[in-house]
Structure formats: structure tokens, C-alpha cells
User: Fold this.
Amino acid sequence: MTFRYFTVAQNWWGPDGMVLRIGQHLGFTLLAMAIALALALPVAIASGHTGRFGFLAVNVSNIGRAVPSIAFLGLFSQFIPHGYSSIWPTVIALVALAIPPLVTNTYVGVRGADPDAVEAARGMGLSPWQVALRVEFPLALPLVMAGVRTSVTNVVATASLAALVGQGGLGRLIIDGQANFNVAELVAGAVLIAVLAIVLDRTLAALARRTSAVERAERTSRTTATGAATDEGDMPVDPSLIQAVP
Assistant:
């Protein structure tokens, strides 16, 4: 029954089609993540670099985990004038959900950067902010990307709540399917949300591997070593330099 729902072209296209709903869902996710990154990263990098307000940065951010997103959604939707529709209650709720993993992981990653690398950068004359942005933050990227992956997964799953305040997204399929007793539509919405979360997570995982400072260094080291070995192997040997072993 659900498989048949996916095979009907009308369910994909049109004003209520799944393609439109996927685009709306991605729009909520990307906008919320962009705002969360802009708010969380500078604070977490500064706190991790200076070592100040660490307790505050980690523990206050946990408020976002403690308060359900639907509570934020209901609270901020009250500020929308009657008769108007706005995406901002949904976006604010998603931002509040996305910030905690970003702040925690970035702070821990920057704070735990290799002391020898940090000290070497300071010895080269880099300013404190250059050390933070050029040394500590790149070393913290694996943890930062882990926080981004957690936030994106949470946001994709929670963005379905947008349908509760009259917005679009894949949650609309679940709400409409439940209202119309259409189990196939309801299940299709849930499946698409799960697939979208998995695709985004796998994409970010691949990006994290590519941007890892450690892996970049290893790739550079391997490339240099391979090139050096090739050059030495191709270099002609002067017989006069070979000494007989007594």
C-alpha cells in the first residue's frame, strides 16, 4: 500500500507533492542550521580558547535539550498576529534544538587541542585569535562535525512539527495522512523523513572525513613520501660514489 503511494506521479508533483514537501523540509533545516552555526561557533570557539565560561557554555546549552521543541514552537507561535503565517516559530524552535550539540562539541574540541601545536603557533608569533582560528579550530573539526551531524539529525526529525502550526514540510504528510485516515501517506512521510536524515548524515560524515585536519596532514605526508620515494628511485647513481665494503 505504501509502495503504491510512491509510484503515483501525482503524489510527487503539484501543490501538495512530496517534492515540494522535501524542499520545504530542507529549507527549514538549512535555515535553522545556518542560524545555529552563526550563533554557536563564535561563542564556543572563544570560550574554548580562553577557558572562560566553560561551565556556562556547556551547561546553559543543555537547556535546549531539556525544553521540548514543541514547547518552543507553541510559545513563539503566540507572537504571530492572528491570520498571518510565519516560518519563524518553527525556525526558532529548531535553532534552540540545534545549538546545544554545536556549543558542547566545539568547546570541548577547541579546549582539547594539542598543546604542542598551540604552543608552536604562539612561538611563530600568531595572535590569540589566529591561534584559535588557524590551529585550535581545525584540530577540533572532527568533534565539531560530530556536533553538526547530531544537530542536523535532530533538526530534520523535529522539523515535522512545522505542520502543527500550518507550515509545510514532510510533517504535512503525516498530519494530513492521520486526518484523512490515509495510512500510506502517513507512512510515506515518516519514511521520507528517515531517509532524508540518513542521507544528510552520510553526506556530513563524508565531508567530515575530507575536512579532518589529521587526515589532511596524513594525505599530505603520504603524497610527499611517495613523491620522494619516486624521485629517489628514478635518480641515477654515480658509480664513483659506491664504496666497497672491506
Q: What stands out?
A: Residues 24-217 form a domain with the MetI-like fold fold (CATH 1.10.3720.10). Residues 97 and 174 are 21 Å apart (CA to CA).
